[in-house]
Amino acid sequence: MIIDGSESSLKKFLAELSPVDQVGAEARAVMLATRSIKTTSKAWAIDTAISMIDLTTLEGADSPGKVRALCAKAVRPDPTDSTVPSVGAICVYNDMVKITRSELDAIGGKDIPVAAVATAFPSGRASIAVKKIDTQDALDAGANEIDMVIDRGAFLSGKIGEVFDEIKTIKEICGNKAHLKVILETGELVTYDNVRKASYLAMLAGADFIKTSTGKVSPAATAPVVLVMLEAVRDYFALTGSRIGVKPAGGIRTTKDAIKQLVLVNETAGSEWLKPSLFRIGASALLNDLLMQRMKLRTGHYAGANYVTVD
Question: Model pTM?
Answer without folding.
Answer: 0.95
